[in-house]
Amino acid sequence: MPQEISISDVKDLIGKEIGVSDWITVTQETIDNFAGATGDFQFIHTDPVRAATETPFGGTIAHGFLSLSLLSAMNYNCLPKIRELMMGINYGFDKVRFMAPVKCGARVRGRFTLADARFCAASMLMIVYDATVEIEGERKPALNAMWQTMIQFDAKLMSEQARRATFAGTHRRTIPAAAQ
User: Fold this and answer.
1) Are 18 and 80 in contact (CB under 8 A)?
2) If 0-12 CB within 10 Å is exposed, 13-18 middle and 19+ buried, where does residue 55 land?
3) Quick check: 11 and 166 in contact, CB under 8 A?
4) How far is it, in rounded angstroms, from Cα 17 to Cα 50?
5) Are strands 143-153 and 124-135 parallel, antiparallel or unpaired?
6) Cα–Cα distance between 39 and 116 in angstroms, integer?
7) Is 9 exposed, middle or buried, given 0-12, 13-18 or 19+ CB atoms closer than 10 A?
8) Segment 6-34, tens digit of pLDDT
9) Cβ pair 130, 144 in contact under 8 A
10) DSSP-derived secondary structure for 93-124
């Protein structure tokens, strides 16, 4: 996958895997910092001694939302930048499933498939990723999510005719107007 693509290249990537990130080690320090930021100090995350004796995990595990939040770093690590991009906005998730715990010291990486892309306004492109966080050496992933992002781009860099032609006939699904 190239490091940079044009917005007109996006339609040809729908349904394709577009990136696999580098591995990230989930340390106890990372888990503790996340606990501090969120106020979730449950012992399964923050007390290695107790978690080793009182859980089936053999030690602490990352918060599910910590694993989910790593998608941002994974995204920046492996997905191609869109040339016309001014900024990206996290729009939300259609579905998130936490499938396996991430044990302290484990390495995780993101795998991204471009599930959908459509214009929402003259200078806004909604992109939906089918994102999976894999755990090194484990059969089951930590999570799978349908992640929606909004790409704000400079409409002046793309004519209206080119914009319409770029995604003509590529709508995979429609998001209800109330959710937009």
Assistant:
1) yes
2) middle
3) yes
4) 40
5) antiparallel
6) 35
7) middle
8) 998 999 999 999 999 999 999 999 999 99
9) yes
10) EEEEEE-S--BTT-EEEEEEEEEEEEEEETTE
Can you tell me the distance from the alpha carbon of 32 to that of 61, in angstroms, rounded to the nearest whole number? 11
Residue with tokens 């602490």: 60
- pTM, entire model: 0.86
How far is it, in rounded angstroms, from Cα 49 to Cα 52? Answer: 5
Going by C-beta distance under 8 Å and a sequence separation of 6 or more, which residues neighbour residue 93?
145, 146, 147, 148
- Report yes or no: 91 and 120 within 8 Å, Cβ to Cβ: no
pLDDT one-digit tens code per residue, 165-179: 566 554 444 433 344
Question: Could you tell me the two tokens for 79?
Answer: 């997905």
Local structure of 169: helix, strand or coil: coil
Using an 8 Å Cβ cutoff, are 21 and 107 in contact? no
Return d(Cα 178, Cα 180) in angstroms, integer. 6
